[in-house]
């Protein structure tokens, strides 16, 4: 049986997403129990095979995009939320953070060219910060 925690390169360059499938598995099991669904019923509602679901719940397979779309369909959820729970997308930003609110407010006032410059600067700073973190780990 494979480890239930693994890493994957994120959508944004340089970002590492850690998937904790234990939490994902517990969430799915809780949803099934709450609804009183079997794996077969869950699969039927989401267009998934019970074997595919079982492989993820037992830790033999990692949850992928296709399975997560089926889970979202069965649970009538936004697929993005399921992708985040599965670790396929990074956590959603905290939109209540005052610094983030201020940054978004100011960013929206910039021209498209200035927004591109700011993003380039942010990417460079993120790379520097990542390099500093890796040096600290050594």
Give a concise summary.
This protein is mainly α and 138 residues long. The chain has seven helices and two strands, in the order ββααααααα. The chain has two domains: 5-86, Orthogonal Bundle (434 Repressor (Amino-terminal Domain)), CATH 1.10.260.40; 98-137.
Describe the structure.
This protein is mostly helical and 138 residues long. It has two domains: 5-86, Orthogonal Bundle (434 Repressor (Amino-terminal Domain)); 98-137. The protein is built from seven helices and two strands, in the order ββααααααα.
Q: Terminal Cα separation, in Å?
A: 30 Å
The CATH class label of the largest domain is Mainly Alpha
Number of domains: 2
How many helices in DSSP terms? Answer: 7
Descriptive labels:
two-stranded antiparallel ribbon, mainly alpha, 434 Repressor (Amino-terminal Domain), 64% helix, disordered N terminus, elongated, single chain
């Amino acid at each position: 049986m494979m480890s239930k925690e693994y890493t994957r390169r994120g959508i944004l360059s340089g970002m590492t997403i850690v998937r904790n499938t234990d939490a994902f598995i517990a969430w799915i099991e809780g949803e099934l129990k709450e609804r009183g669904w079997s794996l077969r019923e869950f699969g039927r509602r989401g267009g998934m095979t019970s074997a595919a679901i079982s492989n993820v719940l037992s830790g033999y397979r990692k949850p992928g995009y296709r399975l997560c779309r089926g889970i979202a369909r069965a649970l009538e959820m936004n697929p993005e939320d399921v992708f985040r729970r599965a670790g396929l997308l990074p956590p959603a930003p905290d939109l209540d953070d005052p610094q983030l609110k201020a940054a978004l407010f100011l960013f929206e006032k910039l021209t498209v060219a200035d927004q591109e410059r700011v993003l380039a600067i942010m990417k460079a700073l993120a790379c520097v910060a990542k390099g500093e973190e890796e040096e600290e780990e050594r």
